[in-house]
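Exercise: predict the structure of this protein bound to protoporphyrin IX containing FE.
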Amino acid sequence: MSPYVLAAAAAGVLIVFLFAVKNRRRSKLPPSPPSLPLIGHLHLIGRRAHRSFHELHLRYGGRGGGLLFLQLGRRRTLVVSTAAAASDLFRNHDLAFASRPRTVAGDKLMYGCRNVSFSPYGEDWRRGKKIAVVHLLSPRRVESFAPVRAAEVDALVARARLAAVAGEAVELRELLYGYTNAVVTRAATGTAGATAEKLKQLLGNSSALVAGFQPEDVLPDAPARFVRWATGIDKKLDDMAEAWDKFLSEIVASHEEKERGGAGREDDEDFLDVLLRLREEGAGGLELTDDRIKATVEDMIAAATETSSQTLEWTMAELVANPRVMAKLQDEIARVATTDQPAIAESDLNKMEYLRAVFKETLRLHPPAPLLVPHESTAPAVVQGYEVPAKTTLFINVWAIGRDPAAWGDAPEEFRPERFVVGDGDAPVDFRGTDYQFIPFGAGRRMCPGINFAMPVLELALASLLRHFDWELPGGMRPADLDMDEAPGLTTPRRVPLVLVPRCKTLA
Ligand code: HEM
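Solution:
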């Protein structure tokens, strides 16, 4: 046989062998739709990524046990879309997926990812998170902000009353954002007013810059840098980072000045006071540099404000769309908060079981972070028999999991808070990270540490707004006319802001 024929035969065998190996490797990845060169599956993802992932899961993920593997430009991506798969992932692979993908925007806006939310998994993140859980968001610290919540709810009710007396419609987003922003800004920095206004502006501009896919997601380093420079993204991020830094540095300086005048009582401290005191005390091994302190305060404000105001706006929308639920909740509030009380006491909130159920139902259907915050794996993992390589980005589609018929029955789209009310002795499904069909705050190591802070802020506001007012749709609109779609972005506000008319109620 001629050497050419031999070489061709050998090459053929080698190609078939390599193809078989590649296919065997591929077959160990979770299912995946057909992809294009370079961009992979990016062209299949719309502006509301959670909806695109859900559609792809329904179409291609059937045999994948709730897992779907996508190549989004350069990013290997695992999408989890069912409660069963989320349970397996958090129970058995939480550590492998406990890091975060690094982004240029996160680096620039959060002091090199020195905040808790974007920090890669490691000792600094662990210590930063401990500070958040033990010192900033502990039940005792949250309790110390009760007067702040009471004052800001009073202001919220007063603003709604002005509109009610004038017979005017109110844009709820503006009203509710003003409230959550003021509570969080006061808890973080001790003041609201102009500080809260400035923060609103900074937060709004920053969200627009970090939303959506970034050039480095799609392109190799050098071209991505070029695109960032050519499109002006880098300049915008640098300007934004400078504006944040100027603002935060002034607040830190004024707190340091105050501290030099003598330490106040620990019970009256805001987040910045706590962080500066911990720096003095040694901070459990974490070097609390100025940058880390500023990143932590910025992180808390960013993580708390929009998530809370969006939850309130969605809840009001669902209540107006479901008058039966609205009436039942108003009855509960009237039963618990009697007429002799001018304002609702926080201790009464625990007696409002249906109120908590209403919020849970809202968070099931409208989780503010529909894909959580992206995780990244630091080691290879075998999930449900599939091999997932290290450095894979993980999206947990809690928006889809909240609609998973296997977990929620045959009418998962229906707003029915009774799902979360159970008979004596049974524990209702909760969002504390162990009922994997309902994880709007995440689960495992990277779970949200802010639940205790968020819930009284939400519950006190809603109970007060429903106690003092009836809420009507403007201009003959009917509940069925309400647009219940969400806008694109990292969090999911309503696409169309909710506008309602408050009518003063006489307290029965
Ligand atoms: C309705 C209100 C809120 C919702 C729905 C919410 C939801 C979430 C979610 C989904 C995550 C990501 C979990 C993951 O990646 O697995 C998260 C992380 C985080 N949240 Fe919240 N959150 C809320 C309020 C708050 C508040 C009030 C604070 C602080 C005052 C806060 C601070 C944080 C922090 C620091 C992280 C990062 C945790 C980490 O990476 O280890 N959140 N939150």
